[in-house]
Amino acid sequence: MGYCDNCDRIFEIVEKNCPMCGKKLNAQPLLYPIKNKNNNQDKSISEAWKAFLEILKECSILSIFGYGAPLSDTDAIESMASAFSSTFRKFDFVEIIDIKPQNQLLDEWDPFLKETNYHVKCYTNLFDSIIAEFPRRSIEGYCQRNFSLWWGESAIKLKKFQSVWELGDWLQPLIDKENNNDYSLITTTFTEHPEAEYDNNR
Ligand SMILES: [Zn+2]
Description:
The chain is α/β, with parallel strands linked by helices and about 200 residues long. It has helices spanning about 45-60, 75-85, 100-110, 110-115, 130-135, 140-145, 165-180, 195; strands spanning about 1-5, 10, 25, 60-65, 95, 120-125, 155, 185-190. The strands form 3 sheets. The protein has a 3-stranded antiparallel β-sheet, with helices on one face. A 3-stranded parallel β-sheet has the order 4-5-6, with no helix packed on it. The protein has a two-stranded antiparallel ribbon with strand order 7-8. A hairpin with a 4-residue loop joins strand 1 and strand 2 (about 10).
């Protein structure tokens, strides 16, 4: 990512220059786990951090992947927990993708989990998570299944690819829909009234 100190905004660095004012973008520094984040020291980091906390406040599903909430990152974890708990969470859902033992994960992420009434799933493999089951559509998939009694399957599930370009091609039908403001699922089967077809003898 690149940061324009003239516009105070973050863009993809592929742009090289700010698409708004044309000034050269600065590469954004990485934010390492530290006890006291002191985010104000670097403006691009504090802006990115602020934007991230806003997204966290609004999210319906929180997928934690590639971040172990180390004890050395206390400031960050406190800010994230307070952003996450600023909204009513009883219908929301947290998934944690991590190879640590489940009881350790539940303990470490407790400030987030108690907000959702411990509505949590732990996976050791990314491919079992809802972000893999419904790429770019996790919320839509989750709502269809849990609130609309839908019983179908996503036709596009994350799998292993040889390259990021191959992955991009695979996701393209979803991106095409998004370009038309259509965020619906692409499914293999779609049953409007699953209760009508449900076998009661099962
Ligand atoms: Zn600019």
